[in-house]
Amino acid sequence: MEAEVARESSGQEVICVSSWTAYIWPTLIWGFTAVMGFGLGGFGNVIGLFAIVRLTYMIFYIRSIKLFRDDRGVWCAQGILPWAKGVAGVKWRDIDQAHYYPNFFSYIFRSYTIRIGHRYTKSSEVVLRHMRGGNMAVQGINREHEGMAAAGVLN
Predict the structure, then answer these.
(1) How far apart are CA 14 and CA 140, in angstroms?
(2) What is the CATH number of the domain that holds 45?
(3) What does the pLDDT look like over 20-42, one tens digit per residue?
(4) What is the pLDDT of residues 87-113, one digit of tens each?
(5) Among 37, 41, 51, 92, which is least packed by CB within 10 angstroms?
(6) Cα 8 to Cα 131: distance, rounded to the nearest angstrom
(7) How many domains does the chain have?
(8) Domain that holds residue 49
């Protein structure tokens, strides 16, 4: 896990990034569309070109998804275009509990769906699919949250 942890100058610690399994469906769908489009010729070439551009965008977008924590809370940053970049998260005082959802494939591929719940509202929680090492990230978040609660820091 230490190899995946990156410290930034503002005190943010990246604790989880997208897994390789997040690339499977976009690659299959847009790759197949590109092959079929170029195979048709004519207007199909435009469809194939659009599919390749869309696949490239999806790859860069998936690479941009990062879960990080700082002294204020746990946050998810995503987006590559300036008008589409964003950060959403939950403050430490508002975290209910973090969960990961294990199943056979997540165990084999080490790619988990994680959920960081908000105490007061379900619309403010963070849910991320296909996160590499999501199980370890969730355990770290819960451990830190419990430590802050025991120390009385969460007011």
Answers:
(1) 12
(2) 2.30.29
(3) 999 999 999 999 999 999 999 89
(4) 999 999 999 899 999 889 988 999 999
(5) 41
(6) 20
(7) 1
(8) 1-155
